[in-house]
Design goal:
mainly beta, Immunoglobulin-like, 4-stranded mixed beta sheet, 4-stranded antiparallel beta sheet, 8 strands, 54% strand
Length: 100
């Protein structure tokens, strides 16, 4: 089962072929261990909220985004937030690793 942003329950798996999609996915870790529970947000180039998915048990997240520049904002336990700027391109998987 997936939610509206393409993140399957329990984490993400790497798609074999992203086709005509622009995929942004990654993992969130702290001291080498997966961070869960938590959330990943996708913000547009103006900083506006677009989508949010819960982190999987493996700290993973995935968004199917329009091509362009995005910010992935991680919200972790203890009030920790971390931002990463990414560029999504059609036909490519953009990997984001966030170590807190």
């Amino acid at each position: 089962m997936t939610d509206g942003c393409g993140a399957p329950a329990g984490g993400v798996s790497t798609p074999a072929d992203v086709g005509n999609q622009a995929v942004v996915q990654g993992h969130v870790t702290r001291d080498g261990a997966a961070v869960a529970p938590g959330y990943a947000r996708l913000l547009n180039s103006g900083g506006d909220f677009v989508a949010e998915v819960p982190l999987g048990e493996d700290g993973g997240f995935r968004f199917f985004a329009a091509p362009g520049t995005w910010t992935v904002r991680v919200l972790a336990p203890g009030g920790v937030t971390e931002d990463r700027s990414v560029t999504a391109d059609v036909g490519h998987l953009t990997a984001v690793e966030v170590a807190l």
